Amino acid sequence: MKKKHLKSLNTIEKWLSKESGDVKSVKEAFQTIRSTLETLPDLEVSDANGALPAPHEISNEPDTIAVYSDGGCRGNPGPGAYAFVIQEHNGEVLAEGVEYEAHTTNNKMELSGPLKGLHELLEVLPAKGKDPLRTKIKIITDSKYVVDGMKSWVQSWKARGWKKADNKAPENMDLWQALDSVREKFMQVEWMWVKGHAGHPQNEYCDRKANEVMDVHSSL
Q1: Which of 10, 66, 171, 196 lies deepest, with the highest CB count within 10 Å?
Q2: Which distant-in-sequence residues (6+ apart) come within 8 Å of 27 by Cβ?
Q3: At what angle do helices 23-38 and 2-20 cross, to 10 degrees?
Q4: Residues 6 or more apart from 54 whose CB is under 8 A from it?
Q5: What are the residue boundaries of the structural domains of the chain, listed by start?
Q6: Residues 89 and 55: beta-carbon distance below 8 Å
Q7: Nearest to 192 by CA among 91, 105, 89, 65
Q8: pTM for this entry
Q9: What is the CATH number of domain 45-218?
Q10: What are the angstrom distances between the C-alpha of 151 and each of 15, 30, 90, 156, 192?
Q11: Within 13 Å and on the Cβ side, how many CA atoms surround 172?
Q12: Distances in Å between the alpha carbon of 130 and those of 99, 120, 136?
């Protein structure tokens, strides 16, 4: 958690230094903030624990882990963000995260959410004594772009040497390839679409988190 805060402080410090022109004063102030932050315990506290119900998509799959994600962009292209939350069958939140990008697209953010969630699981599962290669994962997203791509398009692109039917490279190929690669590190990864903005607790939670971080950056 401290690493995330320190990374954000670096961004804010650079912006304030540029806007104010008083580089020395800004640097001294932020050094004090960093020193204080370094003394705090490195705890990862989840806003989602106790706030979200158990994932009904895996209600009959006690050995499956649910990864919910949502991403968005204002302007497309423009500033954007994604958020994810990972839950076990009983509702326990294993991890969550949110990331902002100053210039991106909606599709990139939709792809980045599950990608980051899967990478997070590669660290979380071994820490809990679980082997990713023996773990089933279910990705739940409101992006048909992501679901259709991972369930169908990717296999066709790979068969053509990562080319579409028109012999052109797919957009966001680096993210598609990264997702295709990381899913091989798990026993099984299933992709599931849910309707967005329809009251789904986890989807609404991720949407809210992504929009909150965009709101923060838009106010700077």
Answers
A1: 66
A2: 13, 17
A3: 170
A4: 87, 89, 90, 91
A5: 1-43, 45-218
A6: yes
A7: 65
A8: 0.79
A9: 3.30.420.10
A10: 41, 46, 27, 10, 9
A11: 21
A12: 26, 13, 11
**Distance (Å, whole) CA 55 – CA 108:** 25
Query: What confidence category does residue 83 fall into, taking pLDDT thresholds of 50, 70 and 90?
Result: very high
Q: What is the mean pLDDT of the chain?
A: 89
pLDDT of residue 1 exceeding 90? no
Beta strands 188-193 and 136-141, pairing class:
parallel
From 81, 113, 75, 108, select the one nearest 96 (Cα to Cα).
113
Is the CA virtual torsion 172, 80, 101, 1 positive or negative?
Answer: negative
User: Is the alpha carbon torsion for 206, 69, 213, 39 positive or negative?
Assistant: positive
- Of 93, 77, 74, give the one whose Cα is nearest residue 85: 93
Q: Number of C-alpha atoms within 13 angstroms, CB side, residue 76? A: 8
Catalytic residues: 70-71, 110, 142, 197, 207
Report residue 119 CA to chain centroid gap.
9
Q: How far apart are CA 211 and CA 59, in angstroms?
A: 28
C-alpha pair distances (Å), 126 with each of 48, 122, 131, 190: 22, 7, 6, 20
Amino acid in the structure at residue 147: V
Total residues belonging to the chain: 220
As a whole number of angstroms, the longest Cα–Cα distance in the chain is 59
User: For 23-32, 61-70, 95-104, 134-143, which range has the lowest pLDDT when averaged over its residues?
Assistant: 23-32
Angle (deg, nearest 10), helices 106-127 and 173-183:
20
